[in-house]
């Protein structure tokens, strides 16, 4: 977990609550399950950002700061309103984060000086925290706006008297009824899924945020870059791709033919495989437990049978066993679908919670010893050797 530790410094093999951290740096499966049950998303977000679980006062102050920054300026609303009704919500969200960067010029190192975040003094820490609160508070508002642009509906002022996920659900589906109270089971399920998606070491989008942020661009632009990376179907777009895959398979009887197409590389098995996890993604166990709780409220999804048949067939097929392909976190799309979110909105439900992980990495980079070093990977040239120049007239 990114925190205010110096890069590379390893805490004891224990975290705050005596949680065993496996030598890969991930909470092991059993601990991950117990962790999720006793901390909620807000405390988890605080832990990622500051490296320790908050006291009651710290948690209340953190929640108030984030919820206080939920509203966006009318200009940002006009900007979001300028998208076509069928624009992909991730395109709207990515652009809206970059828009915020144009708005908060006092947060821009290019305009205010390179060291506004890296001095490490009280003023720069406060400035950094204010951007963190703004981005966390506005992430759900921008997401809800991307949802409502598509429906041609008015935007909703974010309530400050609900939880983070409660306020998000309110903005998504506010139908005008007074004293809206989100369904507590669905609110808790979304909070659990947000916590699961909050951070995951140096995945493609977190690396993108760090690579972009290392040039000392403003944090809004760095987050927009991370959002663009997460949009891809190999990364955050996989939860949408899983449902499209299950819909294309249709009935469980069609699973063997689909898996044959995958083996012939004609199709991809979305929701399976991982660059790091080669046995199972510990998050998938919690996704399944959360799904059981949600389906009790919403009723089961007819795609569930197909998903179970796919899982059973792939897990005993030599082709997938040999390639160490197991389900990853992206079958959570079945839960989002059961909760009524539109299909192309699923990557947004990954991006919103991942903002805190991106910011935790960004904050750690800004505070690292020796200041920020621009990320500049070298490449190994493997192209042609020396060749004589051939004038255009002689090139065929
Ligand atoms: C996330 O990094 C993170 O932490 C990401 C993430 C996070 O929280 O940020 O965990 C979230 O992005 C999860 C992954 C979501 N993506 C998908 O579900 C899309 C489907 N998955 C694959 O595209 C793939 O598994 C990746 C992209 C996730 C990983 O790709 P890799 O690292 O290239 O896979 P690999 O090297 O382990 O592949 C080994 C073999 C290869 O076959 P060969 O060429 O050796 O014959 O397995 C094959 C791959 O082609 N393979 C698949 C496959 N995943 C890998 N074949 C079919 N279907 C798949 N899903």
UniProtKB/TrEMBL annotation:
<dbReference type="GO" id="GO:0046912">
    <property type="term" value="F:acyltransferase activity, acyl groups converted into alkyl on transfer"/>
</dbReference>
<protein>
    <recommendedName>
        <fullName>Citrate synthase</fullName>
    </recommendedName>
</protein>
<feature type="compositionally biased region" description="Basic and acidic residues">
    <location>
        <begin position="7"/>
        <end position="20"/>
    </location>
</feature>
<dbReference type="InterPro" id="IPR016142">
    <property type="entry name" value="Citrate_synth-like_lrg_a-sub"/>
</dbReference>
<comment type="pathway">
    <text>Carbohydrate metabolism.</text>
</comment>
<dbReference type="InterPro" id="IPR019810">
    <property type="entry name" value="Citrate_synthase_AS"/>
</dbReference>
<keyword id="KW-0816">Tricarboxylic acid cycle</keyword>
<feature type="active site">
    <location>
        <position position="274"/>
    </location>
</feature>
<keyword id="KW-0808">Transferase</keyword>
<dbReference type="InterPro" id="IPR016143">
    <property type="entry name" value="Citrate_synth-like_sm_a-sub"/>
</dbReference>
<feature type="active site">
    <location>
        <position position="330"/>
    </location>
</feature>
<feature type="region of interest" description="Disordered">
    <location>
        <begin position="1"/>
        <end position="20"/>
    </location>
</feature>
<dbReference type="GO" id="GO:0006099">
    <property type="term" value="P:tricarboxylic acid cycle"/>
</dbReference>
<dbReference type="InterPro" id="IPR036969">
    <property type="entry name" value="Citrate_synthase_sf"/>
</dbReference>
<dbReference type="Pfam" id="PF00285">
    <property type="entry name" value="Citrate_synt"/>
</dbReference>
<comment type="similarity">
    <text>Belongs to the citrate synthase family.</text>
</comment>
<dbReference type="InterPro" id="IPR024176">
    <property type="entry name" value="Citrate_synthase_bac-typ"/>
</dbReference>
<dbReference type="InterPro" id="IPR002020">
    <property type="entry name" value="Citrate_synthase"/>
</dbReference>
